[in-house]
Amino acid sequence: MTINGPAPVILAMYFVAAIELEEERAEEDKGAPLDDDEKSALRSQTLQQLRGTVQADILKEVQAQNESIFQTDFAIRLLGDVQQWFNDNGVSRFYSLSISGYHIGEAGASPVQELAFTLSNGFTYVENFIARGMAIDDFAPSLSFFFRVSHEAEWLAYGAVCRKIWAIALRDVYGGGDRSQKFKFHTQTSGRALQAEEWDTLNPVRQSYHALLGLLANTNSLHVDAADEPMTTPGEKHVRQATMIPNGAGGGPGRIRAHRPARRRGLGHRTRLPAPLHCRKFHPL
């Protein structure tokens, strides 16, 4: 679910629809209406099984995309309300927040800046949720991240860089357990890197390269843009081609050892971010 202000409302509608659908199926199988205890048990079971992601990161909107209808502090409070509701109702397989660097990168940030801003935004949400009284291990596993990949050499190391910074910070600064230290992220090929000239030849090559970088970073999921997106809504041929690229790119994580300089530079950018988008400093190196 990619949305900002209306996300909690639409998420609630989605959950209600899922619960009602499961109740209809259960009553059809039973051949009789469910009693209150059965409905309550089915509701809990449904909420525990639902999977998905809410991409309602308001900080990246302030920094890059400017698609927001609420003030930043209120929007962050809504995100905290969603996570608190997840905690109270046993929703453990649904990502409450996708913290996005993609839009920051597409707006012109360098790879190091994109990673630094995104990680800093992630720590800002962590600080906010802790301030509300949530335990780190009750919400950190529900956070995920979203990056682009493009031509720059730094993308060879982004997965290792972010996973190491996040794991050390969650362990040493916030006292998070193993699940909280896991850094889960989605990758999308760069739309800004596509071009209108010779697009049918060059864009698939660029997409394949970007997809390979994502696979080498051991991304948890991958989105490949369509080659004709610079001009139009993707056509069937190029949508099919985009779905074929990651399947044919080979992959598997590679051990990239060039990540230390990028990690240090990323931390340097992060410690220069102004308050309140800057969390407490830490030095994992």
Summarize the structure in words.
The chain has twelve helices and six strands. The chain has helices at 7-30, 36-49, 58-65, 72-89, 102-106, 111-131, 136-139, 158-172, 178-181, 199-216, 236-248, 259-271; strands at 52-53, 94-95, 97-100, 143-149, 185-189, 221-223. Helix 10 links the parallel strand 5 (185-189) and strand 6. It is an alpha/beta fold and 285 residues long. It folds into two domains: 1-49, no CATH class; 51-271, Methylmalonyl-CoA mutase (TIM Barrel, Alpha-Beta Barrel). The strands form two sheets. The chain has a four-stranded parallel β-sheet with strand order 3-4-5-6. A two-stranded parallel ribbon has the order 1-2. Helix 1 packs across helix 2. It is 55% helix and 8% strand. The two termini are 36 Å apart. The protein is globular, with a radius of gyration of 20 Å.
